Amino acid sequence: MKLSEELIWRGFQAETTIENPSDLDNRESKKFYLGADPSADSLTIGNLASLMMCACFVRHGYTPYLLVGGATGQIGDPKDTAERELKPLDEIEHNKACIKKQMEAVILNNGVATSPDSDGAAVSSETEPGVKAPQITMVDNYDWFKDINYLNFLREVGKTFSMTQLLDRKFIQSRIGEGGSGISYAEFSYALIQGYDFWHLYKTYGIDLQLCGADQYGNASTGISLIRRKENARADVWSTPLIIDPVTGRKFGKSEGNAVWLASSDNGSGNFTSVFDFYQFWLNQPDESVEYLLKIYTTYDKETVEKILEDHKEAPENRIAQKALAKGATEVVHGKTAAEAAISLTEILFGGKNVADLNTDELENVSKLLPTISLNQAAESTVQNIYNVTEPEISVVDALVKTELVSSKNEAKKLIKGNAISANGEKVTDENAKIAETSILKRGKNKFALVK
Fold first, then answer.
1. Which terminal Cβ of the chain has fewer Cβ within 10 Å, N or C?
2. Which of 140, 126, 133, 144 is nearest to 55 (CA)?
3. What structural domains does the chain harbor?
């Protein structure tokens, strides 16, 4: 399957300046850039869709340049509704470091090119031995904006655009029209800053293609105009549609309050989704959405997706497509080991699998997904079996406290009396009960911990 065919099949096609998608297959310059502003210390699955589109380009031989907006992040990408709150500079620096790692990891894990031609490329931990991962160049627009003279910027960029051209932008019209909240000069100028990015990358690296989400197409197009006027050259933009939550009808993203984060642990802001919850999100998708999500959020090829959907149609009660989606999407972000652990934990919690059946490696991987204590280290007493071998044990109450499923022993006892605690699927009714074997503790419907 050619690049143009795969992009269309996967649904990675929205507004673009490229009239014939097949032109991408034989493009003379095979370099692109994708940008992300550090508005949080984690990207979301909304951002992930654009990264998966980038990985698709990379698999077909394109070279990726990933931009983190240290400069644009200080202004804030304009919303349709209201002004963004300015973030402290130290928070922006922290966010930049976090999302750089996420962007790079997704491309490394999922963008192994069909014909890699660069030497010395970094190899991802998930890349097969002997296979070169793509060569990624990370850039930060603060590096070139920090020394720009304001008057020079107005002469070089500001004089290039008319107010009419900028006022035609949908988000500006919504902000300054009747009932609008107004817009600051800083946010009004955001598109010019992004246009300068494209021009700078064209001059510096020869990049003439920008990839983006559909909501960024207007901003991206300013770079096309700038390159044409300043360099008498052509540049293009290819965008992908925004992914809509099939339940709420809203786009996936932090501004919509329904974010699923790529970070699996807290970087300091609370913006994270555990690997297990990430897996469960995909597992719980409705049948009517699973096909297009499989194409976007996994690297399964066309033949594999069609086989998954065919098998699912024959026995939808087995949720074959949802399981394949959850496995594939979790591998994309967190790797194969984490995905396998999430599958094992799901089978233990909801599929009747016994935690005692896990081998040492499987148990170790599952322990990375849950609050975990070691029975040997945490036990406060021991028992002696008939073979005179001392075995550790710990009270359920203490285990609940140590794994932080509860905040106090009194809370633990109260929950036990209310039949809200179970161990390995069995309700705990005695507040003096002990644990002497590997066990999954459950509080309520969806809080779990491991004692091993």
1. N
2. 133
3. 3-242 (3.40.50.620), 275-367 (1.10.240.10), 372-451 (3.10.290.10)
Tell me the helix, strand and coil percentages in the chain, rounded to 5. 50, 15, 40
Q: Tell me the C-alpha to C-alpha distance, in Å, between residue 245 and each of 210, 214, 286, 294, 396.
A: 26, 16, 11, 14, 40
State pLDDT tens for residues 45-78. Answer: 999 999 999 999 999 999 999 999 999 999 888 7
| CB neighbour class for 166 (10 Å; exposed up to 12, middle 13-18, buried from 19) | middle
Evaluate whether 166 touches 191 at the Cβ level (below 8 Å).
yes
| Residue 30 burial by Cβ neighbours in a 10 Å radius (0-12, 13-18, 19+) | middle
Q: Which two tokens stand for residue 30?
A: 């095979």
User: Tens of pLDDT along 377-399?
Assistant: 655 555 555 444 456 888 999 99
236-240 and 390-395 strand pairing: unpaired
Radius of gyration of the chain (CA): 26
pLDDT at residue 117 greater than cutoff 50: no
Q: Tell me the average pLDDT across 408-417.
A: 95
Confidence at residue 49, expressed as pLDDT on a 0 to 100 scale: 95
d(CA 102, CA 95): 11
In three-state secondary structure terms, 17 is coil
The structure's pTM equals: 0.86
